[in-house]
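Support reply, case 0932

Customer input (verbatim):
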Amino acid sequence: MFINILGAGLAGCEAAYQVSKRGVRVRLFEMKPHKMTPAHKSSDFCELICSNSLKAARVESAAGLLKEEMRRIGSLLMQCADRCAVPAGGALAVDRELFSGAVTRAIRENPLIEVIECEVTELPQDGITVVATGPLTSDALADKIVALCGGSLHFFDAAAPIVTADSIDMNAAFTASRYDKGGDDAYINCPMNKEQYESFHAALVSAERAPRHDVDVQNPKVYEGCMPVEILAQRGLDTLRFGPMKPVGLRDPRTGHRPWAVVQLRTENAAKTMYNLVGFQTNLRFPEQKRVFGRIPALRNAEFVRYGVMHRNTFLDSPRLLDADFSFRSRPELFFAGQMTGVEGYMESAASGMMAGINAVRRSEGREPLILPRETMIGALSHYIADETVTDFQPMGANLGILPPLGEQIRDKKTRAAAYAERSLQRLAAYKF
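Our regenerated output:
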């Protein structure tokens, strides 16, 4: 017996690992490197497209709690991420190439996983299948999924530019983490005074955007967390100063004061030779990116190793289609995982793959599905995507708001978050994986 898994991204690889961990053979289908998407560049699995950050590391945060739950269940991706971490203040960020390479080796060297490099254009009709083809599912297979679902929802995702470390003018920058968390070298900060910021803002809102025939570039339907910086800038002069360019928690050592605005750069790799512009997802034309972002004093001579891009993304109307074990209601032998289920974020996608893989095995063995309680972050996300009372379904990332309320009123935010985390991990401890 074997289980089919379509797609070797974060959800697919985690699903494959969880299936093999339970002694069941896997046929993992991946169309790379024979067919690449517009956003992918590497033939390795689990290629991180947008950011190299896996969000907050603290277990008292929603994102940190999700990752800790995954560690305790035995996540392959968390093992690889922890080994490939790079400085990122209070976040867990990874060296993209090391991370993808580590996951790829673990999957390819697993004797229970057969990797089949080809494009899948039909949904398998026999056996149990986990569909984890991601936000850039090929058109042929996407058409079959749309037909199965009676329609799907579409949105667009954006990625930020990456520059070389050597090209950053450190005379116009300083290293520090916000509120001194995570070490002094976690971020390179590019400060601006009021005049510089307003000049940059004017250039950004008037810059030419890359043409797209499949998206309204003036009003693209994208995740708020991946909104192109030029769209954010249109909302008002100070929007960026309260968003990706907020200066709070930082002090410029040259002046002793908080800057008017700051662009933060986060290291891309362990060697710290590349940095990405945090929160600067964009759909500007490549020459415009160089011109406009060159107005940031520390980046006046920046060398771009990757420009920002916008690409198509797809997700299902999951509350109408999926159960909380990630199975398709009208075809219980078919599971979905990853961003297409409506979970937002790298680790959220991996967590959905983890649960889909576990439940695919349980389905093959005739056992009841494993659905974690709502008090856990993974359980809360699983229940959210299957909640038929949700009428305007939108992608959801890990957040404390989807957890059931605590039994007591706790006014202090940090204490309340710690209580949520303690309760979640206590509930998780009752399960064996």
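We compared this against your earlier run and they match. Two observations from our side: The first strand starts at residue 2 and ends at 6. The mean pLDDT is 91. Please reopen the case if you see a mismatch on your end.
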